[in-house]
Write a structure and sequence with these properties.
The complex is a heterodimer of chains A (about 200) and B (about 650). Chain A is an alpha/beta fold. Chain A contains 6 helices and 6 strands; from the N terminus they run E-H-E-E-H-E-H-E-H-E-H-H. In chain A, a hairpin with a 2-residue loop joins strand 2 (about 45-55) and strand 3 (about 55-65). The chains are: A alpha/beta (about 200), B mainly alpha (about 650). Chain B: InterPro entries: RALBP1, RalBP1-like_Ral-bd, Rho_GTPase_activation_prot, RhoGAP_dom.
Chain lengths: ~200, ~650
């Protein structure tokens, strides 16, 4: 709290979710430090902050890398609640992880109570095409059903790593602007609602 | 807790006739911390009853400033007290089971609450309707409502630290360094130890009530408290207030207190001590810790008798009622405190680092300690959030603490790696000795000649700079003429030095490479070795029973070959080194004159040397790791070769068999 970002600098809170071993930490570390960690070490929870330039504007991104394992589900809600955008990651080489995204999505929607929360479906390990188990069409179908973008990444080759984070930040940003204008123009909002009611009547 | 009332009513039907309605009502909010003590009192017999009366005396004093608290904690006990003495026989049996039960209930309730919290989010409106319907659950609902409008909820009122069971106070207001004391107690003791020892009548003089109450509120609300703006009397009064508000005596309960009293009344000192030690060891952990800290702290007070005007007697007079023990018992505890709490030492509490603090610890131990504190803090935040106290501030804190933990973990890993590698290389140096070192440098020269070249370059880079600096200083301090005749010399020296060395080094590298090429063409080695071993194997093939033995033999043969080649290389390199050393001494001899002539400023030299040394250290480390990998690779090669040979052998056998057929 002592080191709050400048009032002008926006802060976007991103949360990584997905099953264990799909590469949430790998994506995060690649984005944060340009490093690829080969050996797997289950995460409990980790948080990072980075200043980035998003469309010529300096912003801060807070990334919370959560545990994929169910063991830590108890503390997950506390994090989900404070997230502003979610990267829901699965591994294209593991169908189970893809199936699990459904549950993560539901959990997030339940905690956030918001169907339009900034959200990206991310298929990681795109460098392992020969081991692919989840085909593109399948993943795209799900993302369309949810109304969210689908991106395939490789934490190893850094393919689309920046893209997913920046795309999500853009969504969060536009969402915030929306919310602001909604709360500022409450009068208008009410007028609209009243109109609607009239129509119903 | 609920199980008691039916039980009791069975034995004494109608006893609670007037009460039972109220009781069931009460159970609705029995998870409230205040409620437990009253029930406890219910079970503790006459003796406790007396104590409570004493207690209430203080409590009513308290009441002036906190009437609410008084009603909440004390009034239920008042109403039940009249009945408690009727079944003293049951108290002992129940006490323990009830305690366990209480704990279980606590966690159950936590879970329940969490669940409800979730539900709450989904069906907020319905719940509110429910609330109107079920007025009996009013209190529970109120809390939930509070949970929902996060910003207005007051953790200080819902989950206070003052006036709850000690264990709970410890959990809620934790010290994050592993000492199981409520933070408020720790802070008070720290503060008094630091600033109170010169105050006349410490603990006797009480502070302004409003200040103490203010601090009490801050602690209840988990605010960061800065005591430095208050005088030590506020700290003593706050500590006394905390102890007094504990629903149970610091010595667990009346029963245990009486055992302590008996022990303290023993005439024989040694026996008294052992008995007290024994009794203390039976206390719950948090009670033990609190007792130890308070008694040791009070003992420190007696050491400052001159300034505080408080000796053991006056301390006992002042504080025995607060600690719910007799004058004599407190004196005995003070007298024996060194033996009783031999393994406890008061230490000043250093809270977890605030986030954004630039100075993370550097050593592995310090990082690990800080990490433990932060983890403890994090789990406490989670606990508070899970209990429904979700505020923007707390959420932010959660992320920040998490971030700090991540930073610490990363730092820990890097430090570990660094220390690990230096440690390993040290070990290796020790193990291999001089020969090994030679070996290592050889390996490196062969495998990474490029690196070696860069090593040479890096080695000499700082030198020209130093010379430039040198020249400047020369020009400042010397005449122009002097300067002119000086620089060529220096330049000459410079030019000569790297050039000659470079040439000789690269030459030697080339030589080494040639040598290794001659020796180490892998195919050749394999062929040669396989030729030999095949012969051996053929000769002994019949006698070899197991594949395993065969493999071992092959590996042994490979290793012997490796040893041989390495030995020859070492010898070669030694010759080379000797040659180079001779070359160097010659050069040194030539150089010794020009070096002596110019007035080399020592500082410049020193800087250059330091840089070189640092550079060298870095390179040594790199070298060591490379050597390790080479050794590992070599071993792997040996294994593979052995496998290869076995394969070959079996193939041959097959061929032979096929031919025969």
């Amino acid at each position: 709290m002592s080191k709050k970002p400048g009032a002008t600098q926006a802060l976007h809170k991103v949360i990584m979710v997905g099953s264990g071993g799909v590469g949430k930490s790998a994506l995060t570390l690649q984005f944060m430090y340009d490093e690829f960690v080969e050996d797997y070490e289950p995460t409990k929870a980790d948080s990072y902050r980075k200043t980035v330039v998003l469309d010529a504007e300096e912003v801060q991104i807070d990334i919370l890398d959560t545990a994929g394992q169910e063991d830590y589900a108890a503390i997950r809600d506390n994090y989900f609640r404070s997230g502003e955008g979610f990267l829901c990651v699965f591994s294209i080489t593991e169908d189970d992880s893809f199936q699990a995204t459904q549950e993560f999505r539901e959990q997030i929607l339940r905690v956030k109570n918001d169907d339009h929360i900034p959200f990206l479906l991310v298929g990681n390990k795109s460098d392992l095409q020969e081991k692919r188990k989840v085909n593109l069409a399948e993943a795209q179908a799900r993302s369309q059903q949810w109304g969210v973008p689908y991106v395939e990444t490789s934490a190893k080759t850094r393919e689309n790593v920046d893209k997913v984070f920046f795309d999500l930040m853009r969504e969060i940003r536009s969402r915030k602007i929306e919310d602001k204008s909604a709360s500022n123009g409450r009068g208008k909002d009410r007028a609209k609602r009243k109109k609607k009611m009239c129509i119903i009547l | 807790m609920d199980f008691e009332s039916p039980d009791v009513e069975k034995d004494f039907p109608g006893l609670y006739a007037s009460e039972s309605g109220r009781k069931s009502n009460e159970s609705d909010f029995s998870d409230d911390g205040h409620d437990r003590p009253s029930k406890k009192e219910l079970l503790i017999g006459k003796r406790k009853d007396k104590k409570d009366k004493k207690d209430r005396g203080y409590a009513t004093l308290e009441g002036e400033s906190s009437p609410e608290e008084d009603i909440e904690t004390k009034s239920p006990s008042k109403s039940k007290k009249s009945k408690t003495f009727k079944f003293p026989s049951k108290k002992e049996k129940r006490e323990k089971s009830r305690e366990k039960d209480g704990k279980e209930k606590e966690t159950d309730k936590e879970r329940e609450r969490k669940k409800k919290d979730k539900d709450d989010k989904d069906t907020d409106k319905e719940k509110r309707k429910d609330k109107d319907k079920e007025k009996s659950k009013q209190k529970l609902k109120d809390r939930k409502k509070g949970k929902h409008w996060e910003e207005t909820v007051d953790i200080g009122e819902e989950q206070p630290i003052f006036g709850v069971a000690l264990q709970m106070a410890v959990e809620r207001g934790r010290c994050h360094d592993g000492v199981e004391l409520p933070l408020v107690v720790r802070n008070c003791i720290d503060y008094i130890e630091e600033y109170g020892m010169t105050v006349d009548g410490l603990y006797k003089v009480s502070a302004v009530k409003s200040k103490v109450q203010h601090l009490r509120k801050l602690y209840n609300q988990r605010e960061v408290v800065d005591m430095s703006e208050f005088d030590p009397m506020v700290a003593t009064s706050l500590l006394i207030l905390f102890l007094r508000e504990l629903p149970e005596p610091i010595l667990e309960n009346g029963e245990v207190v009486s055992r302590f009293e008996q022990a303290a009344s023993l005439k024989e000192v040694a026996l008294r001590e052992t008995q007290l030690i024994d009794l203390i060891s039976q206390l719950p952990k948090c009670n033990k810790t609190l007792l130890a800290w308070v008694i040791l702290h009070l003992d420190h007070l007696t050491a400052h008798e001159k300034t505080t005007k408080m000796n053991a007697q006056s301390i006992a007079m002042t504080l025995s009622p607060v600690l719910q023990m007799s004058h004599r018992l407190l004196l005995a505890l003070l007298l024996h405190c060194k033996a009783l709490f031999a393994n406890v030492e008061l230490s000043k509490y250093i809270p977890p680092l605030a986030s954004g603090s630039p100075n993370l610890p550097d050593t592995m131990d310090a990082i690990a300690a800080e990490l433990a504190k932060q983890e403890s803090l994090l789990s406490q935040i989670h606990m508070q959030m899970n209990a429904g106290f979700v505020t923007k501030l707390r959420e932010e804190q959660l992320w920040e603490v998490q971030r700090l933990i991540t930073q610490l973990k990363r730092k820990y890993k890097t430090v570990q790696k660094l220390e690990g590698s230096t440690h390993k290389s040290l070990e290796e140096d020790l193990k291999l000795g001089d020969e090994g070192n030679l070996d290592i440098s050889l390996h490196k020269a062969k495998i990474v000649p490029e690196e070696d070249n860069s090593y040479i370059k890096a080695d000499y880079q700082p030198l020209p700079m130093a010379v430039v600096a040198h020249k400047e200083s020369c020009s400042q301090s010397m005449d122009e003429s002097n300067d002119q005749c000086d620089t060529p010399e220096v330049n000459e020296k410079l030019g000569m030095l790297p050039a000659s060395k470079h040439v000789s080094q690269t030459k030697c590298i080339q030589e080494k490479l040639d040598a290794s090429a001659n020796e180490l063409t892998p195919d050749e080695v394999v062929n040669r070795n396989s030729g030999e071993t095949l012969q051996i194997l053929k000769a002994r093939q019949i006698s070899l029973d197991s594949d395993e033995e065969l493999r071992e033999r092959l590996i042994y043969g490979e290793l012997l070959a490796m040893q041989e080649s390495l030995g020859s290389r070492i010898a070669e390199e030694r010759g080379e080194i000797k040659r180079l050393a001779e070359l160097l001494t010659n050069k040194d001899f030539e150089r010794s004159k020009p070096i002596a002539v110019p007035c080399t400023p020592e500082e410049v030299d020193r800087v250059a040397i330091i840089e070189l040394v640092l550079e060298n250290q870095m390179l040594e480390k790199k070298k060591a790791t490379l050597v390790r990998t080479i050794i590992e690779e070599n071993i792997a090669c040996v294994e593979l070769r052995a496998q290869f040979l076995i394969q070959q052998l079996s193939d041959q056998d097959c061929m032979l068999a096929a031919k025969k057929i």
